Amino acid sequence: MIILGCNGQLGQSFKKVLAHNSDAKFLSRNELDITNNQDVQSYLNSLPAGSIVINCAAYTAVDKAEEERELSSSINTEAVKHIADGCKKNDHLLIHFSTDYVYSNTENSPSSEDSKISPINWYGETKHLGEKYIVENLKDYLIFRTSWLYSPFSNNFLKTVKRILEEKGEMKVVSDQIGNPTSTVMLAEKVIEILETKIRAPGIYNLSGEGQVSWFEFASVIAKEIDPKFKVHPIKSSEYPTKAKRPSYSAMSKEKVKSTFKVEIPHWDKGIKECLIELS
Ligand SMILES: NC(=O)c1ccc[n+]([C@@H]2O[C@H](COP(=O)([O-])OP(=O)(O)OC[C@H]3O[C@@H](n4cnc5c(N)ncnc54)[C@H](OP(=O)(O)O)[C@@H]3O)[C@@H](O)[C@H]2O)c1
C-alpha cells in the first residue's frame, strides 16, 4: 500500500493509523512529485501489479487557488491524470479524495453522490476534473468526497481557531455556511476499514463526519473544549469576504458508503477531544 502526499494532514493520519503495517510505504512531495509524469509512471511501474495507491497529495489552499489557477490545476487535475494512467496500466487500485465543494447544493438537504455537480470555486473545479478523469478512465478506483478536515497535523480550521483564541480570547466566525467537519484520523480509519471488507465496489462515495454545523458552531465546540471562557461571535459571510466563493450549504449524505461497505460513520465532533490532547 502506497500513500502519496504523506506530509499533509490526511497523509499523516494514514501514517498514524498504519503505524504497525510494515507493508505501507509513505511518499512525500520530495520523494515523489506527482506533477512529474515521468517519475510517477516509473514509480507506479515499479510496484507489483494490483498494488493499492492512496493519493493524499493535493493543492488545498481554496482562496489562493483563485489566483494560482495553473498550479492548483496541475496538482489537482493534471497530476491526478498521471496517477490514474499509471494505475490503469499496472492494475493498481487507486484511492483518491475529492471535496464537498464539487456540489452546487441549493436545497439545504444533504447532497448524495448523484446530486448536481457545479463547483462554486476554482479549487472545486480542479478537484471535479480530477475525479472525472478517474471515473472515465479507470475500472478499479474509490473516490471519497470529504469536507472540512481537522486533525492535529498541518494547517486546518481547528488549529487556527485554537491559535486565535489562545492569543486573543475571542474571535468572529461565519454562521451562514453549513457543512460536515471531518476528523482525518477517522477518515483514514474508515478507508482502511473499507479496504479490509474486500468488497470491490468502485465508485464515488461521500465520506465525512455525521451531523451538520456552521463554522461558528464548529468553532464554538472547539472553544468550549479548550476553555469555556473563550468567546466565539457569529458573523455573516458578507462580513468576512474571501477570494473564493463558498457554498452556504454543503453537507453530504453518507447513505451510499454506509450501505455498500456496512461501515458506521462517527459524529463529526468525535475526534475533537483527542485532537486537542495531541496538540497540547
Ligand atoms: N483540507 C480540507 O478541509 C479538505 C476538504 C475537502 C477535501 N479535501 C481533500 O482531502 C485530501 C487531503 O487533504 P489535506 O487537507 O490532507 O491536504 P494538505 O494537508 O494540504 O496536504 C496535501 C499534501 O499534498 C502534498 N503535495 C502538494 N503538491 C504535491 C505534489 N506536486 N506532489 C506530491 N505531493 C504534493 C503537500 O506537500 P507539502 O507537505 O510538501 O506541501 C501536502 O503534504 C485532498 O485531496 C483534498 O483535496 C480536503
List keywords for this structure.
single chain, 280 residues, alpha/beta, Rossmann fold, two-stranded parallel sheet, 12 strands, 39% helix, binds NADP nicotinamide-adenine-dinucleotide phosphate
Give a verbal description of the structure.
There is one protein chain. By secondary structure, the chain is of the alpha/beta class. The protein has one domain (2-156, 182-210, 251-267): 3-Layer(aba) Sandwich (Rossmann fold). The protein has nine helices and twelve strands. Strands 2-1-3-4-5-10 form a six-stranded parallel β-sheet, sandwiched between helices. The chain has a two-stranded parallel sheet with strand order 6-9. The longest helix has 22 residues, at 69-90. The chain is globular, with a radius of gyration of 18 Å. The mean pLDDT is 97. Bound molecules: NADP nicotinamide-adenine-dinucleotide phosphate. NADP nicotinamide-adenine-dinucleotide phosphate (NAP) binds at residues 5, 7-11, 29, 33-35, 56-58, 60, 75, 79, 97, 99, 127, 146-149, 154.
Write the topology of this structure:
Elements: E1 2-4, H1 9-17, E2 25-27, H2 37-46, E3 52-55, H3 69-90, E4 93-99, H4 122-137, E5 141-146, E6 149-150, H5 157-168, E7 170-174, E8 178-179, E9 182-183, H6 184-196, E10 203-206, E11 213-214, H7 215-226, E12 231-235, H8 255-261, H9 272-279
Parallel strand pairs: 1-2, 1-3, 3-4, 4-5, 5-10, 6-9, 7-12
Antiparallel strand pairs: 8-11
Helix pairs in contact: 1-6, 2-3, 3-4, 5-7
The structure holds NADP nicotinamide-adenine-dinucleotide phosphate (NAP).
The site of NADP nicotinamide-adenine-dinucleotide phosphate has 24 residues, from helix 1, helix 3 and strand 4.
